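User: What would this chain look like folded?
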Amino acid sequence: MEEIYPEDIGVTMSNEYPGRVLTDFIANVELCLIVSKAVKKTMEKVNQGPIEFLPLWIYNHKSRLESKDYFYVNPLGAYDVLDLNKSGVDYYEDSEKVISVDWYVLSRKKLNQPNLPDIFRIKEWPKAYVISQRMLEALQAMNPAPVNLVVEKIEIHEDVE
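Assistant: Here's the prediction, encoded as C-alpha cells.
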C-alpha cells in the first residue's frame, strides 16, 4: 500500500470528544491502529514480520494541522491462529464466511507456526490486532509509558491431541 499511499493523508478529531490531547494510541471508530512516532520506533525495533507504518496527519476540531507525527500501523497478511471450536465465531447461514468473532481463543499449535510476527491480524477477523508478549513488554517498558495503550488478554487453548 505504501506505493499508492498519499503523502498528506489525515484524520480529523471528532467534535464528540472536544479535547486536544494526542495520546500514543489514537482511538477511532474504524478500529485502525494509529500510533505516535515513539510507539512506531518501539514497534520497529521489536517486530519480526511484514508491516507498514504509513504517515498520518492529525487535524484538530477546527481542521487545523495538530501533528504530522502519527502512523497508521498496517500489519501485512492475516494469520490462521484461532481455535475455531473454542472462539465465538458467527458465520453466515450455510456458509463458512465469517460475520463476526465475539471472543477469541487462540490455538497454541497454530501459534507455533514459523515466522509468526510480533504484531498481526487474525485471518477470520482482520479488524483485530494481536501482539506478542515480547511486543507488549517492549511497549510497557517505554519511558515515558505510552498513553492509551489498551490490551485484552486472549485465552490460548493447549490443543490436546
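The chain has one domain: 2-157. If you want, I can go into more detail on any region.
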